[in-house]
Specification:
The protein is an alpha/beta fold. The protein has 2 domains: 232 residues, Rossmann fold; 181 residues, Glycogen Phosphorylase B (Rossmann fold). It contains 17 helices and 14 strands. Strands 3-4-2-1-5-6-7-8 form an 8-stranded mixed sheet, with helices on both faces. Strands 11-10-9-12-13-14 form a 6-stranded parallel sheet, sandwiched between helices. Strand 7, helix 7 and strand 8 form a beta-alpha-beta unit. Helix 1 packs across helix 16, helix 4 runs parallel beside helix 6 and helix 8 packs across helix 11. The longest helix has 22 residues. The relative contact order is 0.13.
Amino acid sequence: MMRRRRRLAVMSTHTSPLARAGTTKAGGMNVYVADLSRHLAEVGWEVDIYTRRDRVDAPDVEALAPGARIVHVNAGPPVGLPPTEIAAHVSEFTAGVEQIAARREPYDLIHSHYWVAGLSGIELSRRWQCPHVVMFHTLGAIKEVFQQPEPPFRIAGERRVVACSDAIIGATSHERAFLIGQYGADASRVRVVPCGIDLEMFHPAGVEESRRRLAASLPELGATDGPGILFVGRLEQAKGADLLVQALPLIESQPSASLWIVGGDERDEAERARLRDLAVECGVGQRVRFVNAVARRQLPDLYRAATVCAVPSAYESFGLVAVEAMASGTPSVATRVGGLASTVVHGKNGFLVGNRQPQEFATAIDRLLRNEVLRRRMGAAATADMAVYSWRNVARSILDVYEELLSERGIAGAQREPCCPDSVESLLVTAS
């Protein structure tokens, strides 16, 4: 008799994995959820990804890959909302998921992404009596360390999810230590599994072809005009694109170098205008080039065509942009924070900047622009170092966490009862 396929319910409440990374509230997490789901489906799991309906025309069910699908759940108005507003609709989302799931076979396990999803995950885990795994991707208490205030109910919600989940996955040892030290997580339940990258997509082969394709598809970047300093990400101040604009006139060795700012969409025009004005004020208005967030298939050409990839974020839990660029053979210059401090090895595959100031980024970028031998050596080291982040390795590690929880449940006869003594609404009201 054939064993039935394992079934996984993925909670990705505030954003669909198909949202274009680099636009509002869409980034590395979207890529992670989509890629992990595809790889789990390839090895035999059936994966349903539940996300909140944020547009009227979103289909009820949408295929992601064979064995993996996206399910849109009605919860609040069908428009894009920030996570802090979505929090008020968590119970509605949870009830919607339960109603849809009641018509399907039971799930073996729940994997939630981000804190609002985790609140649904711990409640559904209690109702369905199956293990719950959570990955936060970003933590409110870490953002507060970097002077980015968060509402008290977010921190309270994260603490609830930490206390009530069967396993917590952190992308780095730094995140694990923070979860244990600042959130009181049980050390035995916090596992470190890095994010994954598609090494068949992100590799260093074909630099000249990438530049030619980029010159044709995104001529506004001027990919063949001179050295390109690449920024990829959302247009929000925490990502630090303005630091690079200010750094550009301080880079003395390559006056022809340009800054490529790739990210955002029409909703970010105010921030884009601010950056344009800043570039003019700094005397580099013609050297700062903008394009909206691109389709994922265009990213490899961007990474390979760039001379340097810069990641000046105030914080990154992992730093997927830096990792993808390095896998593509382009060294990164990044802030020494969070996951970036684990993936960028200073002086080997890139440079880490401890003082988040324009001059510091200019100095590090200038070293790479003026020294081709160093740049090539670091690029080769970067490609080799990123091999450890292959999705084959990462998916296997995630599956080890799943199987351990399922085995524990089988031995014990039932999972540990999650501590959910009161409703989510009560938590949000009392903590706000």
